[in-house]
Specification:
721 residues, alpha/beta, Rossmann fold, six-stranded mixed beta sheet, coiled coil, ABC_transporter-like_ATP-bd, ABC_tran_Xtn
Amino acid sequence: MAVKKGNTSSKASKAVEIKESIHKTLGAKAVEEIDETIIDYITGVFEDDSMNSDRDELIEMLTPFLQDFAGGCEDKAGELVRKVIDSLVAEGIVRIDQTGGAVQQLLQPVSLLRLDDRLDAAVAWMKPDDNISIVNREQLEANEKRYNARKEARVAKEERKKVRANQALQALQALQKQQTMEMSLARGTLQSRDIHVENFSLSYGKMDLIINGDLHLNFGRKYGLIGRNGTGKTTLLRHIASREIDIKNNLSILHVEQEVNGTEQTVIDCVLEADIERERLLKEEKRLNALPDNERANYSEKIRDIYERLNVIDAHTAESRAAAILAGLGFTDEMQQQATKQFSGGWRMRVSLARALFIQPDVLMLDEPTNHLDLFACLWLESYLINWGRTLVIVSHHRDFLNSVCTDIIHLNNKKLDYYKGNYSTFEQTRHDRLRSQQKAFDAQQQQRKHIQTFIDRFRYNAKRAKMAQSRIKQLEKMDVISEVLDDPTVTLSFLEVDPLTPPILQLQDVAFGYKPENLLLKNLNLGIDMNSRVALVGANGVGKTTLLRLLSGELEETSGNVIRHGKLKFARFSQHFVDQLDLSKSPLDNFLAKYPGTSPQVARSHLGRFGLSGDLALRTVNTLSGGQKSRVVLCQIAFTKPHILLLDEPSNHLDIDTVDALIQALNEFQGGILMVSHDERLINLVCDEIWYFDGDDDQPKQVLQFEGDWDDYKKQVWNM
């Protein structure tokens, strides 16, 4: 499979061209009378290549939207749509199939052809040569048996990969098909699914998070909600989901925040039951069909209505759609049939995500959706959400994810919501330009105000100039005040200096490990880490990444082989588990002093300040802190021992984008070795110069090997697995 990332700048320019052409064709009167959201919707239809498949269908779809402007006349509205289409085609902005046949569109998230080619090539290479000279027949037969067994295992593995790839493709195709069908069903209805809430405020306890803010979510747009840790992003999503903000009731809103409860229910059934209407219809159909024939005859019309509604909601494909989504998120067929209680919290979080993707709410809100996913699932989710046709709000610290998925950015800053068109990279440039222009305007106005004030002070009491002075005073009073640029202070993180050690620092020689000796998880480990190491440890969830970190740190003892550690070697290991163990009723300062008794409060506060936990943050109880702030508390604690090697398990989870950048800088300045489990593309690219991956067949002990290539090469390999 291959990922195709959207070119946001070209998409944005195409949208502008389409809108300008529509305005030109319909005229100035239309621009004034037609609601801008309708123009945006029509623009979006032409911008989406998958919708431009049939001229007549487009005319039928868009005519109702212009009917009010056409004085209620359907024929006039249809003629306006035809003119718009003709202009767009004549200007070469869009291509419309004039014959009614569908324009083919490459979905691009996967390429099964390349999978088939690679499999055929592998099978062809493995065919035995008919001209082999037989020297030792028994030995040859034994070798051939082993060879054929390995060949069958490889082919079976490739077939499993093809099935998984095919399921992921089916999920993406089903999504596009369903969204196209829904748009067709919605023709002629103008009930808005946009959200516009003005002048609302939001607080947490005594702390104001948003003051007189405006919330604008246009249906079908994909928003990245960004802002520093603790500014209120998650709180805002919770208030939207609970409708504590004034939002109309005709919208379905879902905030994916918690994992599903672990029960006896299978994973696939847990996803299917999320479609409440389907479940209700199936139960009612089952109840009515269980009635005796003479009674059931009285309900024939109701049963027919149930079947019609089941057909409308595409209920007959529900199981295949749910299975395909789960496959994309990493669930094998066997895992889908297991009870949810058999899975960890991270996997149950994936089930929650699958439920949300399956039911497709009008507004879907995802808070750090990639935190519990491995690389393949992240890439699949990215491709899936690119094709998402409803409103999407994502909180994420992954720049590349935001760049690929988002059409807009909402910046929560200084207790306001600021809106930017485009993805995260566009936001960065636009905001930089906006702040620079604002600063110039502010400086110019301050200079002007100073000049006017000097005149007023000089001539206020001068009889001849008093009238002019009063005029200048009124000029000052009427002047619109340009606000001073109040940008977020720079986030800084810093590790203490490390005492150097002479190599070898840490080595694994032919090490194997299993929680039970007869059931090994890892084997043939021959690895080494020194003070200069910058290693990214990658692999699917559950493959053994955390186990290897614990084995290296000495928390687990090897089953066989030798682990050689320098006598003065000090480790620091970070994991989300440590964050969960913080005493929520205590402050970061008290948590620190409890971990390091005997440390003076002054020293502790100074060290907390190195990780951005100064002032009030150091004294607030941990339960009032954001996820990213809690992570910084743990990073601060583990760094206090001046470790020689950092073992980091997803260190960027829950951090905001600016803090991730600060972490990157701190790790690059750190003088010891780093072994890091992460799928954060920017973090790995800017910190690590080596990639270790897990190699081995399913259900077999794994080796850890060095990958020959960079992160982009590894990502391509994973997506093609």
